[in-house]
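Re: Re: ligand-bound prediction request (bumping)

Still looking for help on this. To restate: I need the protein modeled with zinc ion bound, output as structure tokens. Inputs repeated here so nobody has to scroll up.
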Amino acid sequence: MNKQLTNFLLKGGRLIDPASGRDTVCDIRVRDGKVDEIGANLAPGGATILDVKDHIVTPGLIDVHLHLMKGLGAFGVDPDIFGVGSGVTTVVDAGSAGHTLLNVFRNYVTNNAKTRVLNYINLSTLGGVSGPGYSILADPRLIDEAKIEQAVEANRDIIVGIKIMATGGALGSQGLNPLERARKLGDTLKLPLLVHIGESWTKDTAPVHVGDVLKYLRAGDIVTHMFTVHPGGLLDGNGKLWPQVRDAKESGVLMDVGHGLHNLNFDVARKVLDQGLHPDGVSTDGHRGNRAGPVYDLPTTMAKLMALGFSLNQVAEMATTNAAKLLGRTGELGTLRIGQPADISVLKLEDREWKAVDSQKGTIPAHQTIMPIYAIRGDTIYEPLPAERP
Ligand SMILES: [Zn+2]
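Reply:
Sorry for the wait, this slipped through. Here it is.
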């Protein structure tokens, strides 16, 4: 049950707030929807006590890649399912809407959600109205810079970047031309590019080489699906990182997991990680078709990264501080600040043996799960929706 409280105390949880360097057991008071006090053994002062002893408390978790236009195609999902229904306070749609659909997105998705819903606008006018294998960038008329600029300027508060499908299937006969146009547009609008790599949907076109894609990316741009096993990924035929990938990372290009139905492969992840390339962000690529597995939710995706060797603090950092950086919202999201609207996740770390499953049904042993307990926005405390989790 969700509840609204004007004065409540999260009592005795372990607060992990990587942006401020905090990792400590303490209490947090929320009054009138704002973070009022953070400290050890705070006096109740008439507050409703929420006992979160033995729980993890973090700044509201941020899932930076999902498909959130419910009813659109095979994928659109209600944002509150992967959002506050999964212990997550901010979710970001990756390209459901091109410029023509952006107002619809704003009015029907962002404005109706309990979760904060941000948006990567699709470079293609078609956005996500067709399947991901469709050639949405293969006709030069499907990119309209002037209309994208208008749509972005009218919606700066929710737009965090431009989504591009850098696949042979999407680009078709246009080759790398859409990437060149995206680069110029990103520079004009001062927005990062979110680039999908990996030919998970199209089998009949030549894959785009990740080295060619990376030529167009700069510091702050994001590559999603970094652990894809499909052609067009980060590894060469011998399982070595393409040299351009290392160069890009060093120059400040950010790497995101983007789990999805197809694009988290543990063997690829192991090879990439063993060569020292780590993710900046963790995201589900959540949609209607992967909620019931293999993705489930962001906490489960974080637990899979823990099974790959990352610590709780590292995955918490990816889903808070780093995610805020990816979105260009450092300081505003992903950290707790006194006097600001409450935006908090409460999680339970459980010691349990389970098998983490990737997108190709590969498994690795996992020893801990992360369960969502609450997502808190302002004065409202949301409990997770019932979900089958592994
Ligand atoms: Zn996606």
